[in-house]
Amino acid sequence: MSIETLKSALPDYAKDLKLNLGSLSNETILDDEQKYGCMLACAYAIGTGEIVKGIAAETDGKLSEEATKAAKAAAAIMGMNNVYYRSIHLLSNETYRTLPARLRMNVIGAPGISKANFELFSMAVSAVNGCGMCLDAHEAELRKAGMTSEQIQASLRIASVINAVARVLEAEQAVSA
């Protein structure tokens, strides 16, 4: 399974997703570690078997072992952080914003790859998970690291397309089951 397999599994009504998925593969604004790391992190964040298998097959040999581990770690840590920080942001009682999170997040400080690339993976996962507070925090870190608006936007495009492909394939699988 690969991106081509995922594209061929999409129904005709999702033609735009097929085209966008193909465009992501040819993305040149990001280097391969950034591009494929964002894809893999998003696939793991979404967690559907078909997407994880397809994207993992696509990234195999294109990501180092460290970058693969970092992409998975970004999905894992953001799965926790996005729920926590989205929740404290949505609560009207501001007291929760002043309390220490008391959650382990060591991987953020030592991701095994460049801090900027890990932040980019985390940005994409935060988009999938819909945490505005995390999106703002990652965008600020990426700007400090010298990433352009176009590079940051590319991570958001990756997140949106991978998410949409997963949702369509999952829905089609439910209908045919």
From TrEMBL:
Pfam families (alphabetical): CMD
Residue ranges occupied by any Carboxymuconolactone decarboxylase-like domain in the UniProt entry: 100-175
EC number: 1.11.1.28
Enzyme superclass (EC): oxidoreductase
SUPFAM superfamilies in UniProt: AhpD-like
Reaction catalysis annotation: N(6)-[(R)-dihydrolipoyl]-L-lysyl-[lipoyl-carrier protein] + a hydroperoxide = N(6)-[(R)-lipoyl]-L-lysyl-[lipoyl-carrier protein] + an alcohol + H2O
Domain of life: Bacteria
Coiled coil: none
Stretch forming the signal peptide: none
Alphabetical list of InterPro entries matching this protein: AhpD, AhpD-like, AhpD_core, CMD-like
Active site: 131 (proton donor), 134 (cysteine sulfenic acid (-soh) intermediate)
Covalent S-S links between cysteines: 131-134
Keyword line: Antioxidant, Disulfide bond, Oxidoreductase, Peroxidase, Redox-active center
Function: Antioxidant protein with alkyl hydroperoxidase activity. Required for the reduction of the AhpC active site cysteine residues and for the regeneration of the AhpC enzyme activity.
Family under the similarity heading: Belongs to the AhpD family.
HAMAP family: AhpD
UniProt protein name: Alkyl hydroperoxide reductase AhpD
